[in-house]
């Protein structure tokens, strides 16, 4: 459907652009039609390539990767619903050596019970399941997903003027990039797009567990991640 719409628009623009020239010379008409047909075929090929890039091909994943993908989807569902116990249950347990589990719970519950801000929507799309590798006590892989979260201010005193909203916009833009932030001052809403990475670890006699794979989490890795995983990432 997308392809047909784009081609229809393209043909319409071509007809509008060459209408006067076609009246002048019938031979030129044939030449133009041939050229336009060739251009349209090229556009179809380009659209097909773009569609292939946008839509993940699950056929490239092994059965083991598909099993991991299913577990990742389950973990991300816990995040979307802010299911505290579910998130903790599927988090790599050694994370709670340097981080107090009760504090972690309180942080999540603070978001749930906040009187200042609420989550309007939270969309997540898995973008990559890395190769599954082995280590001395099991398997691991790196996975990626994209999230789009819409937040709304429910406290009327929070960011209630144009200046404060502009400062917030500048702060978020610096952190996430201009293309990933949309601040709607009128409706007092924020949309944040993020590309996230996780490290998935499956130790023997255990299910897949997940931990963030970014600069902040990697500072903790030497304390909690097995050395034979660290040597491979």
What does this structure look like?
The structure is a single chain. With 233 residues, this protein is of the alpha+beta class. It folds into 2 domains: 2-54; 61-230, Nuclear Transport Factor 2, Chain: A (Roll), CATH 3.10.450. It is 50% helix and 24% strand. The chain has 9 helices and 6 strands, in the order αααααβββαβββααα. Strands 1, 2, 3, 4, 5 and 6 form a 6-stranded antiparallel beta sheet that branches. α1 (2-24) runs antiparallel to α2 (26-54) and α3 runs antiparallel to α4 (84-90). Residues 1-30 and 47-55 have low confidence and may be disordered.
Largest sheet descriptor? 6 strands, antiparallel
What gyration radius follows from the Cα positions, in whole Å? 25 Å
Uncertain stretches: 1-30, 47-55
* Mean pLDDT across every amino acid position: 80
Count of individual domains: 2
Number of strands: 6
């Amino acid at each position: 459907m997308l392809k047909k719409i784009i081609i229809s628009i393209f043909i319409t623009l071509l007809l509008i652009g060459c209408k006067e020239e076609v009246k002048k010379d019938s031979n030129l008409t044939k030449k133009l039609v041939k050229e336009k047909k060739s251009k349209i075929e090229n556009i179809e090929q380009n659209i097909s390539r773009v569609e292939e890039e946008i839509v993940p091909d699950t056929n490239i994943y092994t059965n083991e990767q598909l099993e991991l993908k299913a577990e990742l989807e389950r973990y991300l569902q816990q995040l979307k619903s802010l299911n505290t116990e579910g998130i903790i249950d599927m988090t790599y347990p050694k994370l709670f050596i340097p981080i107090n589990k009760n504090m972690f719970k309180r942080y999540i519950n603070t978001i749930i019970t906040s009187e200042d801000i609420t989550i309007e929507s939270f969309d997540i799309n898995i973008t990559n399941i890395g190769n599954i590798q082995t280590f001395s006590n099991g398997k691991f892989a790196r996975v990626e997903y994209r999230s789009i979260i819409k937040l709304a201010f429910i406290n009327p005193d929070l960011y209630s003027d144009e200046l404060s909203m502009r400062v917030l916009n500048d702060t978020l833009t610096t952190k996430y990039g201009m293309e990933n932030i949309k601040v709607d001052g009128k409706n007092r809403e924020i949309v944040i797009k993020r590309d996230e990475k996780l490290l998935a670890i499956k130790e023997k006699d255990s299910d897949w567990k997940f931990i963030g794979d970014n600069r902040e989490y990697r500072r903790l890795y030497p304390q909690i991640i097995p050395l034979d995983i660290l040597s491979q990432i």
